[in-house]
Design goal:
4-stranded antiparallel sheet, 2 domains, binds magnesium ion, single chain, alpha/beta, 11 helices, binds adenosine-5'-triphosphate, 6-stranded mixed sheet, 28% strand
Amino acid sequence: MAPVIVIKNLIKKYGDVVALDNVTFEVNAGEIFGLLGPNGAGKTTLIRIITGQLEPTNGTVEVLGVNHADFLNSDVRFKVSYVPQENIIWEYLTVEENLQLMASMYKLSRGELREKVENLLVDFDLKSVRKRLANKLSGGMKRKLTIAMALVNDPEILILDEPTAGLDPKTRAMMLGNIEKLKELGKTILLTTHIVEEVERIADRVAIINNGKMIAIDKPANLKKMSCGNEVLDLLFEQLDTKAFEILHKIVKDKNLITVGDRVIIKEDRLAEILEKIKENEKLSEQILTITLRKSSLEDAFLFLTGRLLRGE
Ligand SMILES: Nc1ncnc2c1ncn2[C@@H]1O[C@H](COP(=O)(O)OP(=O)(O)OP(=O)(O)O)[C@@H](O)[C@H]1O
Ligand SMILES: [Mg+2]
């Protein structure tokens, strides 16, 4: 599929801080592309450069063939919608007035505008609060309204910075469902998150970003396979001391073991054998609170690729 966003050797420095360190990748037409990284990884910086709001220190970005420097002066900006990390709404307008005002900025007939607003109120479950002032909405409702407003122009590319931040599980599921529906309509979606379950569920491809560096880009299943295999062993110790650690190191190769506080995650080809050895060793097993053999997640992939947890612990 043809790339719609092409990023080459992007570098962004804020004084001494290197927010983006030579980032190169492409987003293809019609895919859901997830940018996964912890706080401060550089996700928002990257998105702000893509949408022409921030100048890169070096490197280039092209969106639908237009260079980032020309983006805000070209018609391409009408084909791209951007939802920032913080909500952007008119606080003293009602929900439907917010949508109407946004829609009125585009060339829609009155009928089209009315239909568009009605559909978005339904899609984002905002019909019951359509007459409510935006400043009286809950945080989750504000998030839904902000994202609904980005869709009034029927964009080809939708760029979402943390779309599900602050949403409860039910609303989050609805939001992810809506994003998947947009993909079915042929839209391209670039979204950032630090919630692994989300990108695992909906993203066609994921880029893992840490400290401004793009560490890996692939389908979620491939990222897991290449970094930690299909299953991992998850041990929780009462208190992980040096003695227990030494015993573990005799059983598992150094590179196949990662500690996070009192937890140890193990990847190995023969996990069942490792499990037996751990259970057989009394000194070790009596210190372990729980042993879980489970399917690996993108969190594990991130852990083995970077040595740190995505969400911090
Ligand atoms: N305007 C700025 N001036 C100076 N440093 C900045 C500025 N904006 C971001 N940074 C720094 O750049 C790095 C990347 O920040 P960025 O906001 O892009 O991260 P992020 O991945 O979006 O994080 P989060 O998940 O918390 O939103 C951080 O170290 C941050 O402190
Ligand atoms: Mg951010």
